[in-house]
Amino acid sequence: MSALLLASAGADRTALVVRVKMDEGWHVNANPASSHFLVATTVEVPDGNAAVSVQYPEGRDFRPGFAPAAIRVYEGTIEIPVTLERALVPTDRLALRFQACDATRCLPPGRAVLELDTPAPVLR
Questions:
Q1: Which residues contact 90 (CB under 8 A, 6 or more apart)?
Q2: Where are the domains positioned within the chain?
Q3: Which residues contact 16 (CB under 8 A, 6 or more apart)?
Q4: Are 93 and 111 contacting, i.e. CB atoms less than 8 angstroms apart?
Q5: Per-residue pLDDT for 52 more than 50?
Q6: How many angstroms separate the CA atoms of 92 and 94, rounded?
Q7: DSSP letters for the chain
Q8: Are strands 100-101 and 42-44 parallel, antiparallel or unpaired?
Q9: Distance from C-alpha of 55 to C-alpha of 58, rounded to nearest angstrom
């Protein structure tokens, strides 16, 4: 992945967007994952002080050499809308759990904590 960003989508800071940009040739598994052994891309609240509602985008079909059927993945740039529960204290941090893969291999699962409106470091 080349970039991760958590941005505020509303004035009340309860509507957030996690923006993920993957390098050419790389993808992460969609949510829900296509198989039990794949790590789904997941948005979490790292300190547990708020509940979130997440609208995961539709994945695209990808046919890796190791799988007999296509799997659902996210490629390119995706945006994941997140809504914080109004009854709880808004957070300025979310975590993204993911597993980056190319056509032949998958890296170990990763987790990145994102600060509101601050670009995260480039992940390689």
A1: 12, 13, 14, 50, 84
A2: 3-115
A3: 6, 7, 8, 9, 81, 82, 83, 84, 94, 116
A4: no
A5: yes
A6: 7
A7: --EEEEEE-STTS-EEEEEEEPPTT-EEE-SS-SSTTS---EEE-TT--S-EEE-PPPPEEE--TT-SS-EEEEESEEEEEEEE-TTS---SEEEEEE-EE-SS-BPPPEEEEEEBTSPPPPP-
A8: unpaired
A9: 9
Which pLDDT tens digit goes with each residue over 29-47? 999 999 888 999 999 888 7
CATH topology for 3-115 is Immunoglobulin-like (2.60.40)
Assigned token pair, 96: 């993204």
